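The records we work with from here on pair a chain with its fold. The integers have meaning only within a learned vocabulary of local backbone shapes. A complete example follows; check for yourself that the lines match position by position.

:::
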Amino acid sequence: MKSIGNPSSGARKSHGVLLELSIGGCEELMELPCQILDSWAPTIEYLELIELRSLKNLPVLIDCLAKSSSHLKVLTILGVPKLMAASVGGIESWDLSSLKILSIDVSVEWSREASVGIAETVDGMLQRCCNSLHDLLFAGMENWEWFPQSIQYLTILQFLRLKNIGAEELPQWLGNLSSLRELYLKSCNKLKRLPFVDAFKHLTKLKHLEIIDCPELHIDSDWCSHHPQLEIKVDGQPVSTFLQARD
């Protein structure tokens, strides 16, 4: 499928209420008419766009939705290109104040030339849901060391999942996420260090740290002993097994 037709005038005039919209696996779909979101944006709570690798107008769609809907609670954008600066100019008018769950992947068609625009777009989105978001999945690029700085302002974030991050160490300010309960790190091939022991001392609610396929990450027994309340798993095994195998 390469296109989706505009809704008919009758559909636009109907009194139907759309709460969830999920489009996935349509790899030849090039354009999703903004009129579709215009019609139902005021009521949409759940939007999922997955594996739409030919889609060209993602920034326009997000701009359309975020300006019209204050009810959006779940937004998933995975495997979709064009998350670029085309929408940055309109970010200030976006209303994401009800967003609770955000999953976003910046790897599709990433380039150094587009990286500044992508960073501004992601940070702008996070700033507009800083008082509502409690679950974030962010998938980056291995050869891009950038880390979204706006994560540190997500005051009620409980679940943070980071995938394919290109940084060698996590920022110390992660220790300021006092509501954080679970932290997942996956396929971060360059990651070598966790934040300092003292940086995590305020994370009293953090109960679970799971690390999957991060071959360069070093965790020592001293770091673990300072967080006895924390369940740490490395590639599915308790961290004690990981440390014994390494020794």
About this structure: The longest strand covers residues 20-24. Confidence is low (pLDDT under 50) at residues 9-14. The helical segments are 9-13, 34-40, 58-68, 112-127, 221-225, 239-246.
